[in-house]
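Extended Data, panel c. Modelled sequence:
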Amino acid sequence: MSRPALPPLHALLALAVVAVWGTNFVVIRWALDDLPPLLFAALRFTFALLPAVFFLKRPAVSWRNLAAYGVLIGVGQFGLLYIAMTQFISPGLASLVVQIQAFFTVGFAMVLAGEKIRPFQLVALGLAASGLIWLMAHTSAEVTVLGLALVVGAALGWAGGNTVARTAGPVNMLAYVVWSSLFAAPPLFVLSFLFEGWPAIQGGFAAADLGTWACVLWQSVGNTIFGYASWAWLLARHPAATIAPLSLLVPVFGMGASALLLGEPLTSWKLTAAVLVLGGLALNTLYPAWERRRLAQAQV
């Protein structure tokens, strides 16, 4: 059986979500010109929490689960990602490297749930790892070893958040993200005060103009509210095997937007790394669906 095609409007909505998620890396870069990274992350989750928390019922999960997800995603993923993007890695490459969270998520499932790694996953991991090694061999102002390490750490935090979210069971993901922001914003504000300092915080607020605040709202309203709500809506109406592969377009939009809006050059070594990493991600994402279709056809 062939996979049912998305209706045109649904396909456009999915494309809009991955475009928002991809171009979001350029928006991050713009805001970091005025705001310290940890303060910026704290503001992102503050506006993801407020006022949405007053309109969405708290999901039926423990406070511990919400707190773990909030800290892992808030501090672990976005805190490290924003720091990396201040000067250690370009937005386009950050959008690519952070996608390796998929392999960390598989690794956590192996350790915690006893899932066994499959041969195609080893091949996929090898492709993605070779892409990262290729990037390390071409460190420059666009990508430093520290920048790669920070974004890999961000991917690890994202994967940890995914693992925690899986234990929550089937919940309203938008409400889950909003309520977990209650545990993301406070530690980020504390870390900003401790490591960036009150003068930097004051300077950030003083430098922020309408464009800066638009970037903050794009993070919270566009990236979180619109993105998660629309993605959950699509997943509720179509098989995950139809929707999930579209996320592979996020780094495509990220690298493309960075090239168009920030003048980030798309050099041959960078495109080679992208092919390797995206090839690994595509194999990891698409092979199980292909295998299921092949087995279904064999049984007909």
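The longest helix spans residues 268-299. This feature is highlighted in the accompanying rendering.
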